[in-house]
């Protein structure tokens, strides 16, 4: 029983791994590959899924599964990943890394000041238009953070496309949960510059929680299960409390697993980077204390970059060892540095960081309203959680073992690519509902004039409160305004955050919405039969965590008089009834939507969204009944709801992303950089191809195996051409192009291919002759067996005609004679002489022989023996014979001379006494492997007749 249960759980895990497949009913063009990008501060992982291929991590150019998020520009060359890290050691100011937290930040944000302190060698200036971060490399080179992130995403797309061999345009990108509207919009702009369509931005802890739910489905049932996912990455630490539960959909009655984020805590400056920086500064202080030089090592950008890299290596080693040596050659002024560092010392210099480790976990539990005793497990992910002191601190707090079942590096990328497959059109995945949570409450503020000279007061209405789930829609109704007015959207109460964290958030403003022509709209609809319901503003918080004001409408009800003439006919009513079977009533749809999205407030608060756009258009076109119309028979009054769009303008008040001319300029810059890199790659590739060919030919002509295949004159000419091409290759060519190197290679190959072709013939000929010999032996064996299946040798199994046997025999004999003659002639030739017996001629002979044998094999497969009559009882046979004779006698009198032939045929059949109830099958010993394979091939079916035409003439 236990074994069965274990097998079942394992099977479910395997099924979970293969939950998605390419939809077979979709056209090939629709089933395009998609990717995910787990964009961290230090490392990037790219997840991919393509038709028929399960989720996987794309490898980079070095065949590694993760890539440093570092970009460098040095000597006009752009480098990425490990190459850029190397450039950063030589010229630290030319390599850019740890960029993620600078997205959407104003130049005066404390995060920018912290970045300057950590990496003092960058020249950071303010964007003159947006006041955001600009890296100024020189008077002619400067980059915004969006431009640098866009180039990183371009590289991610290249890795994914090389792994799938398909173009990729759609992706899901992970982001830290604490990203606000400005950061998310800036990242979308970067993706747009990289020509990527973002299907969704997903919080990193949400992607990991989805991953865990998909690959551990057996623990999910109707009872909520609570888990904590704790992440310490390079730049930040976060903790999320989530629940897993099977929930039945009220409308479809289907049951689906749901993962919901209930509480989140984070520390955006605590991570592996801070530990590495502490270690860097400690090593710098120790080197200065050695007094090897009078220069302060912290004042040298190059030396500081070397110390930073060594600190990272040392941090990783000390996670597994108690002590290790830091070693740097030529740290500064030709002075080497070596120092033993213990894990105890590392923990000492970071002593003020360890109490901060549990703060995100405490905050997550607090916002979720849960306690540790209901948490099933605390699961770790992120590279920083490998630090022993971090794990020790967490275990002391939770009093239980930590969960380490996830791949700490790849969990978020795999969870995000599962979401990408779910959102893309070319894949079908098992439905897994995800509900994220709001970290920064969003509220609306507007002014209300009570009238009668009272003071105008400010009113606040919360749209999305702390830990409200999203995606979600909300509506606010303004029913006291008769003039144009505006309202503001901004972050709400942030008292749950520290003062430092609130300063990191930056501006609390999101947008300003100005409503126009309110008075004209109200006057236009003013009537005794009109009942105003107010001005409604519609808002959404989509699954990417992006806030939108989707529209503003003036809603009112009016009376409509209906008569019998307005009634629908019988057929119209029938059509309406049938239509309702396939579509829900507008109000019912909205009630269902409200049940899922939340309730509202009736007066200048939240309320349920109104009818859909189709209904709006239909009701807007309703006309008022004319007062002059004469009363009609059987009049009825109907109340209809009308919605009029309200003119309004929206102004974004957070840090604006690149747009307009700035965006176009950035796009042109990146396009030029990409084209220059592609041209450089082609130039390097063509240069390397020519260089490799020259060196290869020169080496080969020094070996007897190759040089013997060329005449003395040919060798001299080839070597001279190679020498000239080599000299030309290393000349200082002005403005070289890939075509120049390709044309040179083409002309050189035309010369060298002559002797290379001879060498290939001499190397491949023995194998070809060996294969021909085996085929001849197989054909001879087949021929010997086939000779016993002719009419003369075996009347009962007359499969082949004598002409066919002779035809195959002649082909075999001719092939043997040709082989003997040609081999002798070729052996008399020198290796540098023109080849007489080529591999192609040998394969042609094999094809002819194969065709002859294949024809006979096909014929024997189609052959069936003649059906013989069954045996009869002797008495019955005698009686039948007498009756037959009598019939024959009568037939002789009627048909005359033809009776003799019939009697002979009867006697011939009667003599056959063997039992032939079952068809006979003739087996031939075929020893040639190629002939066996030929039997399996599809060939035109031909009826085996007495055809005396040789197969070769057919």
From TrEMBL:
Name the UniProt key words of this record, in alphabetical order.
ATP-binding, Chaperone, Coiled coil, Endoplasmic reticulum, Nucleotide-binding, Signal
Top-level taxon of origin: Eukaryota
**One Pfam family named in its UniProt record:** HSP70
One BP annotation, GO: endoplasmic reticulum unfolded protein response
Signal peptide (residue range): 1-31
Compositional bias annotation for Basic and acidic residues: 584-594, 608-636, 879-888, 926-954
Residue ranges under compositional bias (Basic residues)? 867-878
| Location in the cell | Endoplasmic reticulum lumen
Query: Matching InterPro entries, A to Z?
Result: ATPase_NBD, Heat_shock_70_CS, HSP70_C_sf, HSP70_peptide-bd_sf, Hsp_70_fam
Q: Where is the composition biased (Acidic residues)?
A: 912-922
CDD domains xrefs: ASKHA_NBD_HSP70_HYOU1
What GO cellular component is one of the record's annotations? endoplasmic reticulum chaperone complex
- What's one GO MF term for it? ATP binding
Q: Where is this region: Disordered?
A: 584-636, 867-954
Coiled-coil ranges per the record? Answer: 666-693
Q: Which family does it belong to?
A: Belongs to the heat shock protein 70 family.
| PANTHER family cross-referenced by the UniProt entry | HSC70CB, ISOFORM G-RELATED, HYPOXIA UP-REGULATED PROTEIN 1
- Record protein name field: Hypoxia up-regulated protein 1
The organism encoding this protein is Musca domestica (House fly)
